[in-house]
Structures are given as structure tokens and as C-alpha cells.
Design a protein that fits this description.
2 copies of one chain form a homodimer.
Chain A (H helix, E strand, L loop, with lengths): L1 E7 L2 H14 L1 E4 L2 E5 L2 H14 L6 E7 L5 E7 L10
Antiparallel strand pairs in A: 1-3, 1-4, 2-3
Chain lengths: ~90, ~90
């Protein structure tokens, strides 16, 4: 499945969050990752992030697309990261 | 259709970008908006943002979900914004 992860975490935790996401997904923009991921790896990523974030200060949103047939992605301006053909 | 917009724009343009997105979508996190939007309004939003951003400095990504039947959204930590029932 395809996942988009956006996070808004405290400055002290940003690098850790980035490193965890980068293990499984593609960096596309500051605090935004995306990519194909297995259910198992998504669970791992969530557990790893759960250990890092401070729940009443930080926010992480996971958008999961079980099929990308009904979605697409358009970039305006600079293409900062990510793969070419995704959705 | 449901849209997720993530932007990474220069500091001088952030407030303008935020105001344009807030006209059409729900703020959910720093530089992240989401919500149901018509094709016409999405086109308007894109045109308005296109006038604001500096293409070789700023980046805006539009994830468009024509059906939310195959997607879901999960929040970890703080729920900063957005509506309750979305996808």
C-alpha cells in the first residue's frame, strides 16, 4: 500500500523522526514522506515513531492508500524528493 | 474529491499560502491541509497558489483522492486540526 506521512514534532525530535521515516519511505518535503510500504513495515514505523514522539506536543498523520488507482499526485514548483512514478 | 496539500514555501510566503489553502481546506498541521473539494475549487486554489509561490524555491504537493473508499487516516500524538470524519 501507498502511505503519506506528515509530522510536526518538536525540534529536539525532528532528526530522529526523519531518520525513522527515511528507513521505510521517501522524503518528499520537509516533514513529509511517502512511498509503498508493507503492512508489517508500517506497523514497525509506527512503533518506532511512537517511542520518539511526545504525544501531547507532537503530531504524526498517516494517510494510507490501499489502492492508488483513485488517486494522483501533482507537484507545483520545486520537486524536492520522492520517486518519479508513484501514484 | 478529497485532497491533501503539503507545502514547503519561503518564510515570506507562508502566511499567504496558508490563507489561500484555508479558504478551501482544513488546516491539520503546519503546512498541511486536507478536505473535500470540488474540481473547480481545486483549480482555483492551484491558480491562487501558483501566483504566490516562487517555482524554483517553493514546493507544493497535491494528493488527490477521487475516492476515499481505499484510504484511511490515522493520527499519532496530538490532533492539531482537521475535521473528525474525513477518510
Amino acid at each position: 500500500m501507498f502511505v503519506i506521512v506528515v509530522y510536526d514534532v518538536g525540534e529536539k525530535r525532528v532528526v530522529k523522526a526523519l531518520k525513522r521515516c527515511r528507513k521505510y519511505l521517501n522524503w518528499v518535503q520537509n516533514s513529509v514522506f511517502e512511498g509503498e510500504i508493507s503492512e508489517a513495515n508500517l506497523t514497525k514505523l509506527k512503533m518506532e515513531l511512537d517511542k520518539i514522539i511526545v504525544p501531547d506536543e507532537d503530531s504524526v498523520i498517516f494517510y494510507t492508500l490501499r489502492s492508488t488507482r483513485y488517486s494522483d499526485r501533482q507537484i507545483m514548483g520545486l520537486r524536492k524528493g520522492g520517486q518519479d512514478l508513484i501514484i
